[in-house]
User: Fold this.
Amino acid sequence: MQNPVIEMVSYKLKPGVSRQDLEVTQDQVNRFLQTLEGFMYRSVAENESGVLYDVVYWQDMASAKAADEAFMTHAAGKALMAIADEQSVSMSHMEVLSQAQGQCSAS
Assistant:
């Protein structure tokens, strides 16, 4: 059995891109990813320096690699790349070695 894969992408937005532009684009990307085989989970966070971290879990490396190819030609991928500062983009794929899940209850 193959281990899940984490895709980690970090980037900054181009100057002048609004929070609303980002939200619309993120919604498009989420809808697109949900159509792909092997997609498990995605979250996007931003640090205090304005760097966005896009973390996607894939069922396996083949799914992650296939998604990369599809992403670059899909409208959602093009929309995200249009607002990202290309010089700041960094991406890697990593096989999950260990994982745990917590038990969190709503307050």
Q: What stands out?
A: The chain has three helices and four strands. Residues 19-33 form the longest helix (15 residues). The mean pLDDT is 94. The radius of gyration is 15 Å.
